[in-house]
Amino acid sequence: MKLQAILKAITTAFVAVSQANNITYNVVSLVPHNQTMGVLIDDRIYPLTETNKDSTLLHYGKAPKSNSGHYKYVILLKDNHQMVQCENFTRVVTRQVKSTLNECFGRPWNKFNLPLLPTILPPLPVINRVQTKLHVDGEIPVIHLFGNQSEIDLVHKNQTSDIKIELNMTYISPKDIKSFQSITIGLSGHSTRGMSKLSYKLKMKKGTDLYGYRNIKLRATSADRSYMRDKLAYDITRSVGLPSSGYSYVRLYINNQAIGLFGVAEAFKKPWSANEFNHGHKKQEHGTLYTTDVGNGKNIFGSASDDTFGGKKNKTEPVYDEINRVGRSTCDLSYLGNNVSLYSSGQYSVKEEPTVGTANFTKIMDLTKFISQQPNTTQADNSTVSLWEERIDVDSFLRGMALEVILSNSDGYLVTGNNYMLYDDNKSGRLILSEQDFDLVMGTSMYNITAMHGGDYTEFPGFTVRPLMPRLLAVPQFKQDYESLLVNITKHLVNPKILMPVIDGLYSMLFEEVTWDQSLPRVGSDLLLDLIEKSNSSAVNSGRSLFSNATFKEAVYGPDLSNSTMNLKQWLAFRSNNLLMFFNEK
Ligand SMILES: *[C@@H]1O[C@H](CO)[C@@H](O)[C@H](O)[C@H]1NC(C)=O
Ligand SMILES: *[C@@H]1O[C@H](CO)[C@@H](O)[C@H](O)[C@H]1NC(C)=O
Ligand SMILES: *[C@@H]1O[C@H](CO)[C@@H](O)[C@H](O)[C@H]1NC(C)=O
Ligand SMILES: *[C@@H]1O[C@H](CO)[C@@H](O)[C@H](O)[C@H]1NC(C)=O
Ligand SMILES: *[C@@H]1O[C@H](CO)[C@@H](O)[C@H](O)[C@H]1NC(C)=O
Ligand SMILES: *[C@@H]1O[C@H](CO)[C@@H](O)[C@H](O)[C@H]1NC(C)=O
Ligand SMILES: *[C@@H]1O[C@H](CO)[C@@H](O)[C@H](O)[C@H]1NC(C)=O
Ligand SMILES: *[C@@H]1O[C@H](CO)[C@@H](O)[C@H](O)[C@H]1NC(C)=O
Ligand SMILES: *[C@@H]1O[C@H](CO)[C@@H](O)[C@H](O)[C@H]1NC(C)=O
Ligand SMILES: *[C@@H]1O[C@H](CO)[C@@H](O)[C@H](O)[C@H]1NC(C)=O
Ligand SMILES: *[C@@H]1O[C@H](CO)[C@@H](O)[C@H](O)[C@H]1NC(C)=O
Ligand SMILES: *[C@@H]1O[C@H](CO)[C@@H](O)[C@H](O)[C@H]1NC(C)=O
Counting CB atoms within 10 angstroms of each CB, which of 251, 387, 422, 529 has the fewest? Predict the structure, then answer.
């Protein structure tokens, strides 16, 4: 053979080998129509020209395995494959693979190694939670919703209305791709509907689910420049053994628009109770799930673009009691009288009917009556312990109320008489309490900041105003249990030593995401800030300063830009110190 022929044979053989070594590269990125993705391997660019049939965000293609073990994703012009953008870090081929995970352009990791919270109290015996991959720690999947753009615009332009539309959805995590048809989506939240970054609720068709769940919430966390208060509070709620949602993050896209970084939380709707209390077995019996809904049926943004929220013109007054300095509420377990319809007309809403029979508000009415009959000032003895235990799972109430105080929750049972759930456990016949929606916690507050963060829990706003706590704590045993919960949860969980590593981890994980989120145009308008600014209530801190322009770093580590929000780090040290000092545990 001539030398040339030999060389040609070698080259052909080499190319054949390297082509046999081709692997599939998968990368998520939103690129304009005249651009495409590519991968840079050993100084050569290979276009990735295919897109997934269920989402144009996911680009893929075959290219050789890297000899150097390194590669980068690039963005190319479609017509001449000229490079437009290149990742500024190097990816490492870590194992023998035929296909990469579904990677994200510009993000150097697929799974972030996130420190986890310890579990400090055993889950309540009633909890039998299903195993689910809905929330994988350290992963940030993509949710791509797509459909009729004018319907989407209608939802966003009418943000205070309750318009629901159907869209298709593709869910892309590092390992999975799942597609869904005809998801019902709408906006969620009450006051947070007035923010320019909106929250969504998604409902999947009957017979379909995302890792066992059909109803999920995409939480915008728009009142929280740290993006992590909701996450921390949900995780802490689980860590003290209360029924709750898991919590993770996603990147949301709608059609060809990036919407932002969102928290994923489970909506307390079917089949949530089966998942939380019966290992996901839908045929097993469960009881009624109620939540409290102060804002239900009310539109606080006036009638400019809305007539679906009750239709009253005069509805911009804040629901606030100037004398007691807390929100007025008809669902704070006050006894409203002996007519059961007073409890069922919007105060306590049924989120899930029981598997047998229908929701029975008599249970709640009877409980509020019982509470109203207990002494609220004079010390009772322990003889009423069993009377309480017959009606409620006292542990769940004490843990929930401990969390409200420890987390400086200004939108829960104590301060606003809102945002908690009651589960009627059909097995024990008792009501169980837990909490949800942690927008205004951990140093973000609409209320007197001194009182929200002080060590003396009896001065916490609402503590002696709402009917429950003065009466529950009149029982010596419950008072002792409650105080030891306050000390225990603070000492073992909500303090800088345990929580700061988790906060630092979340900060690192979210840094690029937050930068991305804050660079995006918003689809809604800032109605709430205008409303708060117009309101003269002495209670409500200035809206502009509440939702301040703090950077992500300032929101987490300080310094504070206003005196109504505290950065997370300072809040944490201040909060735990005040509580432990009060109990002489420092
Ligand atoms: C690519 O398309 C965008 C609009 O989507 C346009 O602004 C840009 O000029 C185009 N670039 C090229 C090189 O054609
Ligand atoms: C391997 O990838 C290269 C570059 O994309 C392509 O030209 C070639 O056809 C692929 N070979 C096989 C066997 O798929
Ligand atoms: C890469 O770019 C991002 C911004 O897109 C920046 O935050 C990061 O520090 C850069 N990394 C390196 C290694 O230059
Ligand atoms: C306090 O916390 C510790 C450690 O997490 C736990 O073992 C103990 O049972 C708790 N005690 C009370 C009274 O809750
Ligand atoms: C949703 O998916 C179905 C089935 O693939 C398809 O027929 C329909 O056109 C899709 N709708 C939109 C808006 O893309
Ligand atoms: C949505 O808002 C527009 C004006 O912004 C209004 O004309 C329309 O009636 C509203 N639609 C609904 C369903 O509320
Ligand atoms: C709104 O409510 C206030 C206080 O309840 C009342 O004084 C005022 O007249 C009402 N305005 C209208 C337009 O009904
Ligand atoms: C509701 O529960 C009460 C006891 O709490 C019971 O007496 C009543 O029959 C129940 N009503 C219905 C309609 O099930
Ligand atoms: C305590 O009970 C008395 C008598 O029932 C009642 O008048 C008073 O308002 C109650 N106080 C609180 C703080 O609930
Ligand atoms: C806030 O609460 C503290 C402690 O309860 C109290 O001393 C202070 O006067 C309150 N400040 C305002 C502005 O109400
Ligand atoms: C009530 O029970 C607690 C805890 O079991 C006990 O420490 C306390 O002495 C009891 N108090 C009375 C007045 O019986
Ligand atoms: C953020 O800063 C800009 C300019 O400094 C100001 O106009 C805007 O009102 C601020 N927004 C908030 C929410 O504080």
Answer: 387
